[in-house]
């Protein structure tokens, strides 16, 4: 080490870390257990000129635990319009800016995409410090295939929109991963079980925390179990096995299912629901639904 570092060491002080290069640093933070913060992530947060946080109050807990003293700015869905120009100006001035969400990897169902896009468009360096994320952890714990997966983010809160989202994902040839709020979990599982059938699934809750729990079983069984536990708490990740390979239903069965669905839904939604149920192509089922509509004159 050079003379300055030797002098600091002889005074009983840790050598000062080199300043961060200018640019935007996307930093993963723990999803529950604070010890899951990475060393590289800490280096960035302790050396950054500015930290953009989804919620500065949430970040204050992590900052206090690890002695992070950089100034912060709120960057959330509600504040990004006002915060983005300030952050871009800091980058233009040669500052190092760290971006964090409340938990896990920023941009994964969290704000940040617009800021990354703005930084890239202006030629600023952008890099990321990997770390904790609920999606790969839930996949790893699920016991389901992980070679291919589809992440659908949070399921919509409204029933009709939620059922459409499930129907659209039903034919994806991969393991499905969704986030869900605890107070909507029971009703979401009912829709998932009805539209996807008894696929194997896992419900991961409170990952990395004291009361971490993973329930595994067929979707319909999990739906019944969770219906009896309305007091579920914590962050929820739902992991569902891909569509089974099954023979196409007979024409009479398909028409009966379509007529029942058409009685209470639009042609598009009815076709999507039936296609999801039987693992069929939506375009072909939609064409048959149009024929049934014409035949009945409805």
Q: How confident overall, as mean pLDDT?
A: 89
Helix content: 40-55%
Q: Shape from CA axes?
A: elongated
Taken in chain order, the helices and strands follow as HEHEHEHEHEHEHEHEEHEHHH
Beta-strand content: 15-25%
- Return the CATH topology of the largest domain: Cobalt-precorrin-4 Transmethylase, domain 1
Q: Which spans have pLDDT < 50 for at least 5 consecutive residues?
A: 1-15
Describe this structure in words.
By secondary structure, the protein is α/β, with parallel strands linked by helices. It folds into 3 domains: 113 residues, Cobalt-precorrin-4 Transmethylase, domain 1 (3-Layer(aba) Sandwich); 101 residues, Methyltransferase, Cobalt-precorrin-4 Transmethylase, Domain 2 (2-Layer Sandwich), CATH 3.30.950.10; 46 residues. It has 12 helices and 10 strands. Helix 7 crosses helix 11 and helix 11 packs across helix 12. The longest helix is centred in the last third of the chain and has 15 residues. The chain is elongated, with a radius of gyration of 24 Å. The N terminus is likely disordered.
